[in-house]
Amino acid sequence: MHSVTIPSHPPTISSLGLHSLEFSKSRRIAMNGGALCAKSCLSVGNEGPQTKRDAVIIVDHGSRRQESNLMLNEFVSMFKARTSYEIVEPAHMELAEPSIRDAFKLCVQQGAKRIIISPFFLFPGRHWNQDIPALAAEAAEDHSGISYIVTAPLGLHESLVLSIFTSLISYALSYLVLKGCGE
Predict the structure, then answer these.
(1) Residue 32: domain span
(2) Using one digit for the tens of pLDDT, what is the confidence trace for 94-112?
(3) Which UniProt keywords apply (predicted)?
(4) Catalytic residue among 9, 61, 92, 143, which?
């Protein structure tokens, strides 16, 4: 294992040289490895970018509505089925279980050595650059030798978001036509 000095706090947008969160600049940070890291998350060695010991935690805000929380579970199941990640767990930042700490523990119990925490959020904000990294750091305290990284939120991937919005608009317009409301 690589010996790495752990920073007292994960980097934030401002520590990466951004003082205002312009969309294009924040997108470049995300695309150029500007994820929030801790421990030896960048010390991949010869293992390559993904290993069998990598786990993914997909985290949303959490809701008082159980139906909303169950949607994350469905997405996590789909993600696991369609990717090569064997260890994938849902987590809610607050208001619901499992927490990031619970999901982190489950990943380690399944053999994870590196955990990728992917926020199911559209844009960066306080949850992305403060709350989730703080909760991840607290969870990691219980598991020495386990590294983690917090990925960029979805909205920083321009082509993905544009494609999704175009698809949603097309669907809505076709629905109007089917209902006889369109031109």
Answers:
(1) 14-156
(2) 999 999 999 999 999 999 9
(3) Lyase, Metal-binding
(4) 61
